[in-house]
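tool_call predict_complex ligand=2'-monophosphoadenosine-5'-diphosphate
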Amino acid sequence: MSHRYALFGHPVAHSLSPRIHAAFAKQCGVAMEYALIDATPDDFSTALESFAREGGAGGNVTVPHKQAALALCDHISERARRCGAVNTLMRRDDGWFGDNTDGIGLVRDLTQRHRHDLRERRTLLLGAGGAAAGIAPALLDAGIGSLCIVNRTPTRAADLAATLATPARVQARHWDELGSLGAFDLIVNATAAALEPAALDLPPMRIHAGTLAVDLGYGEAAVDFVTWACRAGCAAAIDGLGMLVEQAAEAFSLWHGRRPAADSVYALLRCDRQLTAMD
Ligand code: ATR
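tool_result ok
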C-alpha cells in the first residue's frame, strides 16, 4: 500500500501540516510521506491527477482549492457535501473520496481541549467564504442556539445562510448592523482579512462576560482579531491552531484507521512557535 500523502494549496510553503502528520505517524508507528504540493487554481486538477498516477494514497486540500477538490471527487462524505468543500482526500480503486474535517476539528478544539459548552450559544459568524462554509454546519450540529452570518459583501452571507439545513436558527445580516445586533456568546472570525490589505474593521459591539471569541487562523493571522477580542472584553479568545491539529487528527484517522493523540502535538506547536492564545 502506498504511503504517499500530500497537502495541495497555493501557497503551502509555510504549512504546519507536514510536521503535524509526521508527529502523528511516529506516535502511531505508521510509515507515511507527506509532501507539500503548491498548485495554482489552473494547475490543481492536473497536479491531483499526477499524484494519483504516482500512487498518492490521500491528501489534504487548503486555500484556494477546497471547493475545486469537491468537484474532482468521485465520492464525498455527507459533511463535505454540506460544506460544499473538501479538505481531506482518500484514494479508492474507483477515484477520490472527499471529506471535510474542518468543522469537527473546530468543535473538538473548543469543546474537548478548551472545555467550552457550545450548546445554545448565540453565535456570530464573521465571513461567508470557504472557511465560514466549512465550519457552519458543524457549529449547528454542536447545538449552538443561533447563527448570525455577517459578511462585508451581504449577498454572500445570504447565500451561505440559504445552504444551511436549519433555517430557523440561521440569519444573514449586514456588516453595518454589527453594532446593533446585541451581545453574542460566541464570535467566530472566518474572514480572510488578515491576508488582505484591508484590515478587519469591527464597529463597537456589545460583549458580555462570557463571550468567547475564536479566530480560524493562527499565528500572525490571528493576532489582530485576538487582540480586538481581548480589548473588547471577551472572556476568552482562541486562535485556530487547535482546530488545525484536530482537523489533521481526523484526516489521519480516516487514512490509517487510528486516532492519534492530538494534545501532545498541539502543546509542542503551541510552545514552540509562541502562537497566540489566551484562554
Ligand atoms: P476563505 O476560503 O479563506 O474563506 P474566501 O472564500 O475568499 O476565502 O472568503 C474570504 C472571506 O473573508 C469573505 O467572507 C470576505 O468577505 P467578502 O465576501 O466581502 O469578500 C472576507 N474578507 C476578506 N477580507 C476582509 C476584510 N478586510 N474585512 C472583512 N471581511 C473580509
